[in-house]
Amino acid sequence: MRREHHVRGRRHGFTLIELLVVIAIIAILIGLLLPAIQKVRESAARAKCQNHLKQIGLAAQNYHDAYKRFSGLGPYSPLVALFPFLEQQALYQQLITCQELGTDITSGGLSSLAATPLSLLVCPSDSGIPSPPVIQLIGTNVYYGVSSYKGNYSPMPLSGSFGGGGVVGQVLSIARITDGASNTIYFGEFNNNDPNWPQWAPFVNNSQQSSEVLGNPLNAFSRWCVAPFGTCASGYYPINQQLPPLLTPPGQFDFYHPGTQRVVTYGSGHTSGANFVFCDGSVHFISNAIGDTPGLLFALCTPAGDEVVDTSGF
What we know:
Structural class: alpha+beta
Helix content: 25-40%
Number of helices: 7
Radius of gyration: 25 Å
Mean pLDDT: 84
Shape: globular
Largest sheet: 5 strands, mixed
Number of strands: 7
């Protein structure tokens, strides 16, 4: 019988050069995909933020239908006034009861009413807000829920009276918005992250508020239950204007230094702009480039300024 011998070839693994080539190709592919993944992630975050503002805008319309005006500062903030129309009726009633009885809403530490975390009020791109969105006053048992959104209180620069003249700083019906509800900002984003905030914090609105910094860039003035600084902004300052390095200490209580102005400046963690909801309930992304058109952001924050708004500016 004839025997056939089969000779099997020797199997070779990857050589070092081949392995390095494969690793290099994978690294290149990851490098190409990463920006696309980040872009998709930011797009999703921006869309979620716009949805939050859309809900605030719809709540404002329902509030106006009920009270024939837009929400204002009292008794807590323009955001708190909208709670019954944002599925937060129980929290709103508890806050009002505390106000009527003179009870401190910060009593109870993390379980206090003021410390209630509200995801609807947080933009996913706002890296200055912790998770959960609650901050603590250093050395105390006082906590506050934080927000990424602030109302249009004024088109004016910050002063001892905070200017005024916006939407949430006065009793304002839609009939009094003669510039048009679609041309008037109601709420906009506020960026709680600023790399130079810790330098300025000790000089912002005296030392009482700066104790909330917690040793990081968190700007603690975005508390949803506090007005006006906690929930109000001004259209006078450029969108996403950040603090410069602190070279010379300012006055201890100076409304005009950049640190104090920063707490009323619109901005966001999104790329090149911020989201805003207008008095007609529409939501728009306004680019930082709006500053290239002098007075445009100012005009969008005046309800009855008789300005001609060129929407091509954003």
